[in-house]
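In pairs, describe these two lines:
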Amino acid sequence: MTDPAAGNEALLEQQAARESSARTYPRHLPHAIREASGVTVTDMDGEEYYDCLAGAGTLALGHNHPRVVEAMERVLAEDRPLHTLDITTPVKERFVDTLFDSLPDEFADSARVQFCSPAGTDAVEAALKLVKTATGNRSVLGFQGGYHGMTNGALSLMGDTDPKENVPGLMPDVHHLPYPYEYRCPFGVGGDECHELAARYVERTLDDPESGITEPAGMVVELVQGEGGAIPAPDDWTREVRRMTRERDIPLVVDEIQTGLGRTGELYAFEHADIVPDAVTLSKAIGGSLPLSVVVYDESLDVWEPGAHAGTFRGNQLAMAAGIATIEHVLEHDLDDHAARMGERLRGHLDATERAHDAVGDVRGRGLMLGVELVDPAGESDACGRYPANPDLADAVREACFDRGLILELGGRHGSVVRFLPPLVVSPSDVDAVGSIFADAVEAAIEDADADGRREVAA
């Protein structure tokens, strides 16, 4: 029987004895959470942390926001149904109203919505089925560095090959195109030339009769790659991709599962480039911290037969109520603008850390979706003149941050990018504290690495 007063160590030991070896976060964030409020969590030993992971970007309003809690309590107090499959309710209709109000009119006015099973990866699966059904085609275009989830089709789109090792039966006919990762450009050039070449490569590939790619059913893209390392797509590149897909009748699916609802400094990442996609996948923030996912798409794609896509838990009424509260709060308080301002403030701290240390190679991202790529200055530069990735240092920085009360996660090529995803309600003083802890952690991790190197040389 679990002791409710047990400390971190006891609960972690119990978790390790009973849970799958596939568990991830407890291995490098070794604590058990007792309570949470706003941007902080407190563990079973009473230690408090700034949470810049925030449920992998799920907690737009932070932990236990009063407006979200009140909305959920109201559903329970009024004996509303909690589980309705896809049967509608007043809560569901209000959720759709609120969601569509958050989208640009040009997109929302001709949109349809499909409620999916609860995870973001389920929305990606639904979007893949949608565009394949609408076009009659089977091949799908994705991008190097992309991350769209861990189910079959979503995993097939992933750029990282490690999670796909020894996984049988992945979706065939997925083609990965170069993403405009300007710090480590796939074409070995820098600046605007990188995204210009990337766009030109995509267009030539689409027009090449011997490219090996059959007529595409759709293109799926993140406009800020999250797990791929907080890499923002340049707006000019995004506009070019929209142009070429529209001209060739290729549905463009924008994955907004992590970027959506204000995180990048606009309500939706595609708004930075002022484009209108054919479909958008949404989850995380739109459920107000509870499981919910949808695909919103242009009505021209709506050729499904009844029952063509289903899912038992697509009628999560508590999540819809929490989602209404979250979306309304974001809209009423202009939290997209706040995210842009706080992102600039945090980036100022991160840029200062970059200037102080050669091992900090790049600071990038948009809004409150930022990343810091750590490198090895003693290594040989690549074709772009960049030092090699330094995953060991990134891991040490994450550990040093955790020891100082800051929860962060890694991503990017070789796991060398420290990622920041704080709640959108983060305050200026919170941002300053996070930036200070990170700077101290980087300095300590570099000093420890240098000391280890000196000991190895002496030995």
Q: What stands out?
A: The first helix runs from residue 8 to 18.
